[in-house]
Structures are given as C-alpha cells and as structure tokens.
Specification:
Number of domains: 1
Helix content: 10-25%
Number of helices: 4
Distance between the termini: 38 Å
Radius of gyration: 19 Å
CATH architecture: Sandwich
CATH topology: Jelly Rolls
CATH class: Mainly Beta
Shape: globular
Protein name: B30.2/SPRY domain-containing protein
Largest sheet: 12 strands, antiparallel
Pfam families: SPRY
C-alpha cells in the first residue's frame, strides 16, 4: 500500500476537523499552519524504504514522548561557565551512522563549533543536540526565540536541518515523524510530521555549495519555525508548532545521509544571520534559567547519569 493511502484517513480526519466552527478563542495559542507551498506525496529526489516508514510509525505508536525535564546540576553549571559552547551533538549509537563528530574541546577540532563528517556508507540517520534548545520547564523572559546554524562544506547525499522532540526514530530524517520539523537540502522541501514528500518551501535556493550556511530559528510568541540562507531570513515554514511551549523539550535535529561534512554552531562563533547574535535569540539565555518559586523544585538536581537514564 502506498504512503498516500496509508496517510489518507488522517488527512480526511484533519479536513473534517477543520470544518467544525468552534468560535473565536482569543486566548488560544496560534493554530498550527504551514506556509503556502505545493504538497508532494513522494520525495522529489530521494525516497525512504517502505519498511523504514512502517517501523517509524510503529515506533511512534508504542514509545511515548519524554516529558519536559530539568537539566542536571552539572549541565546548568556548564552553561553558566561556558555559555552556548556547552551545547554539542550526541554521538549516535546507530550503526547507520558512519562518520565522526568532533566537539569544540576535541584536540582534533580546530574550531569552536561542532564538526560532523560522514562517509559514503552512512544511511539516513538523525543526530541531536546534547541538550534541548527549547526547554519546557525554563523561562523565556527577555527572549524572542532560539536559533542555530550549520555551515556546509560538502554534501554528497542529504543534509536536513530542523528540530525534534525525543524519543524520535533515529533512522528517520527530521520532519518525517511526530513533533519534528525539517528543511531538507536535497530537494528544498519543508516537513512537519510529514511522512510523505513534504511541501515546497523557497525558490531562493537552487543548489547547495561549499560554504553555504543554513540556519533554523523558532519564535516563542507565535510558535513559528523559520530557516535562513547565508544570513537572509526566509519566510516562516510553520506557525503554531510546539505549543503550549511548556509541554515538551525540543532538540536541534540534523539528518544526514552519504558523504557529508558540516559544522554546527549554537552561537560559539558569530551567526551569519546577524539578528541571531542578539541576546534575545541566544539559547543559553533560556535553557537552564528557572522561573517562579525555586521551592517548587528539588534542591539537589539529579546527576547527568541519573537524568540520562531516568
């Protein structure tokens, strides 16, 4: 059975729901909506195997999302000491990932940012930031949103930049499954919980060249996710997603396949998108900053190992 027919019941259900008139809700968060764009039921350039599609659907049905969590105290200390340099990329455990990830403190990495290099044998895999870039239990006073960038040195395959809540099927690119959004740089389509072919996003990008910088940003007030290209902000890709904000933790998510080389910058170096360098967009001013009565939380936060495996 094709993906189109598998997804048809949900699409019809969504259509029926949209026809119900429930009246204005002035206090409700913005309703999720994609920006205009043609919809594709199959990938324009690449198509994932049907079994991987089915396995991911089953994974999301069986494995619940993690609730938002407080960071362990050593992680908060690291943020306070090093700022955005505290963010890195987790080393994937999947054998699908063939490559290396160099953190800023690695002796082989001459950069302040994370370096990712993959080989030709690398299959579709999603890698995540070591800490959330949007954390439901932390405050956003004085913050407009959060933002990060990748600098592409080589893309002989696929790179996709976006966000995701955990756990997420690691063999799927961002945007294909639940609570995940992505901009796929092989066909320039955008995805949010879209296991089909995505939607057209921009006509401003025709191909990826070495040195291109693509960014991903999220605005708290509107729930809008947008992308940037070489310092220019593109239109909102999706509006009203990840709301209410306090209900989940959201991680940077990058999909990769094939022979690729890129760097991930959470703010350790200046962003190409100049507005992202302002405090209102920096991730370290949000994650790790508690609001409200501190007595609502335990005095002693769990250790890293306890938090990781809880």
């Amino acid at each position: 059975m094709s993906r189109f027919f598998r997804s048809l019941p949900n699409k019809l259900s969504d259509h029926r729901t949209n026809q119900i008139n429930i009246g204005p809700l002035s206090d409700a968060p913005p309703e999720w909506a994609p920006a205009p764009g043609n919809t594709h039921y199959y990938g324009k350039i690449n198509e994932a195997p049907g079994k991987e599609y089915d396995d991911a659907e089953r994974f999301c049905e069986v494995v619940p999302l993690n609730p938002p969590r407080l960071l362990p105290s050593d992680a908060v200390d690291k943020i306070n000491q090093f700022g955005c340099v505290a963010w890195g990329i987790e080393i994937p455990t999947s054998p699908r990932f063939v490559g290396i990830i160099l953190s800023p403190n690695d002796s082989k990495n001459v950069s302040k940012v994370v370096t990712v290099q993959t080989g030709r044998e690398c299959k579709d895999v999603c890698i995540f930031s070591s800490m959330p870039i949007m954390a439901g239990l932390y405050g956003i006073q004085g913050k407009t949103g959060v933002y990060y960038e990748i600098c592409i040195n080589r893309m002989d395959g696929i790179i996709a930049i976006g966000t995701a809540c955990k756990p997420y099927p690691e063999w799927r690119l961002p945007g294909w499954n639940r609570m995940s959004a992505g901009f796929h740089l092989d066909d320039f389509c955008k995805f949010f919980e879209d296991a089909d072919g995505g939607r057209d996003y921009t006509n401003d990008m025709k191909q990826i060249r070495s040195g291109d910088i693509v960014g991903c940003g999220y605005e708290f007030q509107t729930g809008s996710l947008f992308f940037t290209y070489n310092g220019v902000q593109l239109p909102p890709a999706f509006t009203g997603i990840y709301l209410p904000r306090h209900a989940q933790d959201v991680f940077a998510a990058i999909g990769v396949e094939g022979h690729c080389n890129f760097q991930v910058n959470f703010g350790a170096e200046l962003f190409r998108w100049k507005e992202g360098n302002e405090w209102a967009w920096r991730v370290e001013g949000h994650v790790g900053r508690l609001t409200g009565d501190p007595s609502n939380f335990d005095d002693e936060l769990p250790s890293y190992q306890q938090a990781r495996f809880s």
